[in-house]
Specification:
Layout (H helix, E strand, L loop, with lengths): L2 E6 L1 H5 L3 H11 L2 E8 L3 H7 L9 H8 L4 E7 L3 H9 L12 H5 L13 E3 L3 H12 L2
The structure holds inosine-5'-diphosphate (IDP) and magnesium ion (MG).
């Protein structure tokens, strides 16, 4: 069964939205196959966001993602990777459609601040496998 990797980001936990976000995934039919609360360490985040570490805004993302506990985990189901991406909506909450998690629960960030958009989802099957290996080992 296809698996995708998720992170419920620090804003999700701080705002008490864990139940609502997980409920959406479960109601859709995605099965939680792993889940763990973590305080992210920067070296692991750097591996996870290897394509972003050299961007000028990466330090604010890194500070945001390590600003409080997160929940990491995996969802399984047919087409789980695309299903969870579609449920999240666009990266920038100002572009995310109503009905998506980011469109319903997040607002645009102020200039120079990290985009706080509730949750992460792998963007492809290859990314999912890479990320699951980083966070959980094979
Ligand atoms: P994604 O989460 O929709 O896959 P990515 O481009 O992979 O988006 O970026 C990872 C995360 O980094 C985003 O979810 C967001 O929290 C943050 N981010 C991305 N681009 C920016 C930016 O231009 N400014 C601030 N934060 C950003
Ligand atoms: Mg991404």
């Amino acid at each position: 069964m296809e698996e995708t990797f998720f992170i419920l980001k620090p804003d999700c936990l701080k705002r008490g939205l864990v139940g609502q976000v997980l409920e959406r995934a479960e109601v859709r039919g995605l099965e939680i196959t792993r889940m763990e609360m973590r305080q992210i360490d920067k070296p692991t985040l750097d591996k996870h966001y290897a394509d972003l570490v050299d961007k000028p805004f990466y330090p604010v993302i890194s500070d945001f993602m390590t600003s409080g506990p997160v929940l990491i985990g995996t969802f399984a189901g047919p087409g789980a990777v695309q299903a969870w991406r579609d449920m999240l909506g666009a990266t920038d909450p100002s572009k995310a459609q109503p009905g998506t998690i980011r469109g319903d629960y997040a607002l645009p960030s102020l200039p120079g601040q990290a985009i706080k958009n509730i949750a992460h989802g792998s963007d492809s099957l290859e990314s999912a496998q890479r990320e699951i290996a980083i966070w959980f080992g094979n």
